Amino acid sequence: MKKTEAERFLALSEEVLEHPVYDWQQQYYHHQSLTIYDHSLVVAFLAWRIAKTLGLSQKAVIRGGLLHDFFLYDWHVEGRRNPKPLLKKHGFTHADEALLNAEFFFELNDMERDIIATHMFPLNIRPPAYLESILVNAVDTWVTFREFIAGKSGAPHPIIPFVRENRKKKHRGG
Ligand SMILES: [Fe+2]
Ligand SMILES: [Fe+2]
Known about the structure:
Blueprint: H1 3-17, H2 36-54, H3 58-67, H4 75-81, H5 90-105, H6 110-117, H7 131-150, H8 159-172
Bound molecules: fe (ii) ion (FE2) (2 copies).
């Protein structure tokens, strides 16, 4: 990972990362020892790198990537506490919940809405309407697969400590 590339990503992500509710995701675990916050950073970063190369909308891919799992609950705990029939389980419903939350706190365009709403296709019936949505869907699947395989011992992607360190520095004012 090039430092200049990570800095560019951070600059483009800042508007979402700076929103006070975005940090809520740090308390929810996704896969293994990674939080939803960490997972979303990696999805947005890797999808953005490909979007740049393909000439797709970088802004939509970053915003959609950062907000694709913005459902704001611990799905492991919820699943145990409140067992549901298959089609009502987290995997089938969280894209809609993420979209609802994201729309409440952020101004989204159609493409960003579509990226969030279709990121679990084909578990969700609605197919992606944009190349940007197909991209985030594919990168999310790949990143999730890697997180499962790597387990607790896997090294985090370097964009995670990079963003965390930079944000800490910024908020310390240095
Ligand atoms: Fe998801
Ligand atoms: Fe995800």
